[in-house]
Amino acid sequence: MGQFVVIGLGNFGHNVAISLFEQRNQVLAIDANSKKIEQIKDKVTQAVVVNVKEKEALSEFISNDIDAAIVSLGDKIEASILTTLYLKELGVKKIIVKAINDDHGQILKLIGAMEIIYPEKEEAVRLARRLTVPNLIEHIPLASEYSIVEIAVPDNFVGKSLKELRLRSKYNVEVIAVKDVLQDTLHLIPEADVKIKPDSVLMVIGKEVDINKFKV
Amino acid sequence: MGQFVVIGLGNFGHNVAISLFEQRNQVLAIDANSKKIEQIKDKVTQAVVVNVKEKEALSEFISNDIDAAIVSLGDKIEASILTTLYLKELGVKKIIVKAINDDHGQILKLIGAMEIIYPEKEEAVRLARRLTVPNLIEHIPLASEYSIVEIAVPDNFVGKSLKELRLRSKYNVEVIAVKDVLQDTLHLIPEADVKIKPDSVLMVIGKEVDINKFKV
Ligand SMILES: Nc1ncnc2c1ncn2[C@@H]1O[C@H](COP(=O)(O)OP(=O)(O)OP(=O)(O)O)[C@@H](O)[C@H]1O
Ligand SMILES: Nc1ncnc2c1ncn2[C@@H]1O[C@H](COP(=O)(O)OP(=O)(O)OP(=O)(O)O)[C@@H](O)[C@H]1O
Fold it and tell me: Phi and psi for B87 in degrees, rounded to 5?
């Protein structure tokens, strides 16, 4: 499959490395801490102890046929900047770095990181959204202003058919699936005469502004 | 809207608090560190310095009409366990805690936390999936074994109609939308005779096992 290097084995780096390996990629894990290397060596292709601030040592393991390098060195800002620079000079095409704040992320982008990740911030925003709309199970933003939302059916929908609810004409949203929570089944692109049962969840796609009217 | 208490203002807690407030909820932010309180006080309803291990001090701010409490105290495992216990005793219905590993999470669940969050692990799994399937833009797991995937169209699809591609009969997946990346538009539940253009992205829904055959 793909060839990846993961540098820094904190919670994020460790999980990226083992997830990539589980999906049958080749994974080289690098960390300065031998304990971390010991814990991960059976769950990746190869794991080596390297201090990545030493360019010589790092270059021994980096070739330009690596598909991507993922760097997550926690609050070691200097180390993450140097590593990004070295990886760029060693020809790595795609460098993904976990940043600890916006300034850090901006610097990394200027140095050559292709993508900056803020795991805590991204999960935080997701959680806040789920908590704000109580029957909202998931809100998945898509292209441009579209989203998919999963909404538990309000009581006044139960027993009505999709046709009677007239969601497309009333709210300009499309029901792409109806989930039966108890039976854990999904009915894709349901017919207009399908009746809503209690304990069902509607998966609806539409523009953000229309979904917000529909959610309330 | 909702009433929330956020305890612990690391990266995750801080972002949950301000996101909840931006979505027009009432947010009380708590931290033992006055600097953190200073930085956040204009971005939430109220922010107070409290050492949450002191039950008396904490109870002053907790009532049972809070919708949810979000606890993220980093590696202070003892503090997070005590806080969860106190919040439960003070009648908070929904306690969500950021855990640093599985054992920590298990303990919190036994104490009474309703939901455990592992932000770094969840983002890591998402990233690993995006990197493994190069034309996969997003993979959204749904109920039971279903997922939605966004896939950039392979070259051999271009110019064909959805009907000709026979995705439903060949792979048992449904195309719920076609995204035009250049024009940034989304065509929902397209007709079978719609032709695939280059630079389009298919949004496909189906069972995991069928999607995996389709992705390759
Ligand atoms: N110069 C270096 N060379 C190699 N590895 C390093 C270097 N500096 C730090 N590291 C490693 O980077 C890792 C950073 O982990 P740490 O838990 O601090 O980061 P984090 O990204 O905040 O963690 P999490 O992913 O859990 O949020 C540690 O395992 C540490 O050994
Ligand atoms: N007993 C306590 N009472 C109140 N606040 C506390 C207590 N102990 C720790 N805290 C606060 O919890 C916060 C934890 O932040 P820290 O950055 O360590 O956690 P984290 O959850 O790993 O961070 P992140 O969300 O960035 O991953 C700190 O702001 C700290 O002041």
Answer: -60, -40
